[in-house]
């Protein structure tokens, strides 16, 4: 279970003229208990939703308050949290580090599978399950955007996390690959938290969080939450700021 208690994220902004630094609120304070199997997070660009996603596995630490996963504090138990919570970025190139798909998935297995030949066999089996068996030995850069996103997901899922957090995993994909990734996420046994601009996908979640100006402004049943988000986007002026 993921629990946020008064989690606040701030950043110091230096004064270029040499005056005192200022503190900018990026997110929060946020108090949540996420127990549902499928949770979607929606919000405008710059609303703070990606910061919220990164809090969940310790990529971002709260300036105050706490974030816990199964009782483990992201601030003091970071490695253990990250073993439980896998993270998928918007751009798969941000996390694919090996030359070929089979090597990338095998890298994820290095801690749990000591034998190199067994790692490779498991990696090939994982790629076969998502339809990339015939791409296993190609250069990663030769894959399409959708195939690279599937590879990124496979490399994270190879570590067998309890929770998967995805930060806009379909934003860079065309409609066909978006449907492939959405279907894959829907069938996973793990708890999945997805940050998304795809409101149709959000409607298939069990719970939707609406983030605006660094705060969770609506939290509830998908249809009501998406309606609240649509109302917010049509009634609020466009703001510039540093929240992400």
UniProtKB/TrEMBL annotation:
Checking Pfam families in the record gives: ABC_tran
A GO molecular-function descriptor = ATP binding
Provide the Gene Ontology terms for cellular component.
ATP-binding cassette (ABC) transporter complex
Q: Does the keyword Mitochondrion apply?
A: no
Tell me the ranges covered by the ABC transporter domain, including all copies: 2-238
- The superkingdom listed in its UniProt entry is Bacteria
| Keywords in alphabetical order | ATP-binding, Nucleotide-binding, Transport
Cited CDD domains: ABC_cobalt_CbiO_domain1 (cd03225)
Note the coiled coil stretches, chain numbering: none
The text of the family note is:
Belongs to the ABC transporter superfamily.
Q: Under what name is this protein listed?
A: Cobalt ABC transporter ATP-binding protein
Q: Which organism is it from?
A: Cellulomonas uda
